[in-house]
C-alpha cells in the first residue's frame, strides 16, 4: 500500500508523525511540497513530523519580523 501526498490532510494547529521514512522519501516530499508550503517538516532518524501552524501563529510571526 502506498499513500500519495494529496491523501494526507493536516488541519492548522496540528501535527502528523510518520515513522520509517527514508531520507530519499523525505527529500521527495520536500520537492513535491515546494518552497512556498504552509506546513513545516522536521526529519530525524526515520521519523517525519509534519506541522501546520495555526493562523494566529502566522500572523504573530509576520508582526514580529516586520
Describe the structure.
The chain is an alpha+beta fold. It has one domain. The chain has two helices and three strands; from the N terminus they run βαββα. It has helices at 23-33, 55-65; strands at residues 14-18, 40-44, 47-52. It has a three-stranded antiparallel β-sheet with strand order 1-3-2, with helices on one face. The longest helix has 11 residues, at 23-33. The termini are far apart.
Q: How many distinct helices?
A: 2
Straight-line distance between termini: 45 Å
User: What is the number of independent domains?
Assistant: 1
Overall shape: it is globular
Largest sheet: 3 strands, antiparallel
Range of helix content: 25-40%
Structural class: alpha+beta
Mean pLDDT: 81
Q: Which regions contain 5 or more consecutive residues with pLDDT less than 50?
A: none
- Beta strands, count: 3
Write the element-wise H/E pattern from the N-terminal end onward.
Answer: EHEEH
Residue fraction in strands: 15-25%
- What is the C-alpha radius of gyration, as a whole number of Å? 13 Å
Strand order of the largest sheet: 1-3-2
Question: How does the SSE layout of this entry go?
Answer:
Blueprint: E1 14-18, H1 23-33, E2 40-44, E3 47-52, H2 55-65
Antiparallel strand pairs: 1-3, 2-3
Offer a quick outline of the entry.
The protein is α+β, with helices and mostly antiparallel strands and 66 residues long.
Amino acid at each position: 500500500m502506498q499513500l500519495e501526498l494529496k491523501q494526507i490532510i493536516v488541519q492548522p494547529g496540528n501535527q502528523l508523525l510518520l515513522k520509517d521514512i527514508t531520507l530519499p522519501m523525505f527529500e521527495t516530499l520536500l520537492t513535491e511540497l515546494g518552497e512556498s508550503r504552509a506546513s513545516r517538516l522536521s526529519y530525524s532518524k526515520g521519523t517525519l513530523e509534519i506541522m501546520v501552524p495555526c493562523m494566529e501563529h502566522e500572523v504573530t510571526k509576520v508582526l514580529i519580523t516586520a
